[in-house]
Design brief:
about 30% strand; Rossmann fold; alpha/beta; six-stranded mixed beta sheet
Length: about 250
């Protein structure tokens, strides 16, 4: 089995209601066990890339190709992609009033595996994951994200990732809005969950999360293109020089 999970070649994509393409030729490859960071300023196409990979409605691929585990991703619905092992953690997780975290996670796990897990068996499995992440029963008995702090919402996303055991995890600005303590807790969760069989694509504005979740590869996205790729030292260079140094001359 190939260790290549995701192959993006010259990807171009548009968003409903927006003139022209947002992604203008993105190419990158993610292998199992690798952590990739995609960094860029506002409007560079970072979140668009995550939504295109997840199959969000309104985001259309206009050119290039995306292959997941060697298969064309573009013909798969969002549900099919999730069942195939693609996970997206949102920048702004939504509240789902009336649905407890535990019931939501059990339904998601059943859909991911294609098998019905009994409440008792699932609770045992869930508690194993919660123990790994240092989480309590109190959180999973609440309604999904209702009344959660920013840090709790992001930790709940990482718990979802642990329960679903994805092959490819896309984290869209998971560090957004977190104070330093919440950032450390979320980063520890990511490091705990992301194993040798998982490919990780972290989308972020800032280097700070990369101080805790060390990437193997950093991609700088400017105007819908990968301006440069390199090792973790590239994030430090960005922090020192800013994004202007990576923009093409006008």
């Amino acid at each position: 089995m190939s260790d290549v999970l995701l192959e993006i070649e010259d990807l171009r994509a548009s968003v409903e209601g927006h003139d022209g393409d947002i992604l203008n030729g993105v190419s990158l490859t993610v292998r199992r066990g690798e952590k990739h960071a995609v960094m860029g300023p506002n409007g560079s196409g970072k979140s668009t890339l995550s939504y295109v990979l997840a199959g969000r409605p309104g985001y259309e691929i206009t050119g290039g190709s995306v292959r997941y585990k060697g298969e064309d991703l573009t013909g798969m619905s969002a549900d099919e992609r999730a069942r195939a092992g693609i996970f997206l953690a949102f920048q702004y997780p939504q509240e789902i009033p009336g649905v407890s975290v535990i019931n939501f996670l059990r339904a998601a796990r059943n859909a991911r595996t294609g098998a019905e897990t009994s409440p008792t068996a699932f609770l045992k499995f869930l508690r194993e994951k919660m123990t790994l992440l240092g989480m309590t029963d109190e959180m999973v008995r609440r309604y999904v994200n209702q009344g959660f702090s920013g840090g709790e919402k992001k930790r709940n996303e990482i718990l979802q990732m642990a329960v679903l055991e994805p092959d490819l995890a896309v984290l869209d600005e998971t560090d957004s809005g977190l104070d330093i303590d919440a950032l450390k807790a979320v980063s520890e969760g990511i490091n705990t969950v992301a194993g040798e069989h998982t490919g990780l694509l972290m989308i972020t504005h800032y280097q700070r999360i990369l101080n805790y979740v060390r990437p193997d590869v950093v991609h700088v996205l400017i105007d819908g293109r990968v301006a440069r790729s390199g090792g973790p030292e590239l994030a430090a260079e960005l922090e020192a020089s800013g994004y202007e140094a990576f923009k093409a001359p006008a």
